[in-house]
């Protein structure tokens, strides 16, 4: 069996595991009340929607590259847990950003608010929708944590740190946006903490720990941190210049929500016109003007250059890593897929 077949088989096992967990929960809670089953379905909808499965992929790659057993059920559970943790982060992020769209579908909080209005329920639809989405995020987090309960101590420590980092990163993201702080280095750190670490670095480290190779932690950090930052910088560019028809989510949210991404902090520091636009809700005209200025001031190109530099760092790190050539090649190929995607 080829390496691609092994990885594909393992990813299929992860998806089956997620489906099994969520189906069992739906059946269990259906017996209590149909509302409970619908609540579980909120987690199912976002978890089984078309996603990239990056976090499970990197976890399994870390495990296989560390000579782990491809049939180890703990690796499948850990990878499934990472995807459910991602669902937690997406549900929470969509509420924090008041985003109407995710993976081409209406977001959970918007869907439940619409249901509240349609059924003429008591209370405020928005608060109801956000409440359901936040609780669904908590439920996804609980399911993820349950899947990691049998992990060895070294792997569990990585898992715990991952959860702390993504939560602290989310807090800083909204705090800096509210304060209007334009600090490129802080923005970079938030990007790495909120997204980069839990997308690439920690999943690789988790997989290696499960294979009994914690000694690979430094090599995977040297690869995962720059590539994780490149991943988030690409996300910033997609938000600024992407098309929601292609991305499956709204674009321009960073402008409207005053998010101080690395892209915007560079721009705000460089140009007075951008500072003025960033100080008020952008709207369609403001967003278009902002996009033009990001190009004409050279900021967008500078971020592209930084992405290229970070990809080079990641590729050098994996070239120096004590891994078999086949896994070095796989990790090298992934740098382009992560850093130069369009959604």
UniProtKB/TrEMBL annotation:
<dbReference type="GO" id="GO:0046872">
    <property type="term" value="F:metal ion binding"/>
</dbReference>
<dbReference type="Pfam" id="PF00348">
    <property type="entry name" value="polyprenyl_synt"/>
</dbReference>
<dbReference type="InterPro" id="IPR000092">
    <property type="entry name" value="Polyprenyl_synt"/>
</dbReference>
<dbReference type="InterPro" id="IPR008949">
    <property type="entry name" value="Isoprenoid_synthase_dom_sf"/>
</dbReference>
<dbReference type="GO" id="GO:0008299">
    <property type="term" value="P:isoprenoid biosynthetic process"/>
</dbReference>
<protein>
    <submittedName>
        <fullName>Polyprenyl synthetase</fullName>
    </submittedName>
</protein>
<keyword id="KW-0479">Metal-binding</keyword>
<comment type="similarity">
    <text>Belongs to the FPP/GGPP synthase family.</text>
</comment>
<keyword id="KW-0460">Magnesium</keyword>
<dbReference type="GO" id="GO:0004659">
    <property type="term" value="F:prenyltransferase activity"/>
</dbReference>
<keyword id="KW-0808">Transferase</keyword>
<dbReference type="InterPro" id="IPR033749">
    <property type="entry name" value="Polyprenyl_synt_CS"/>
</dbReference>
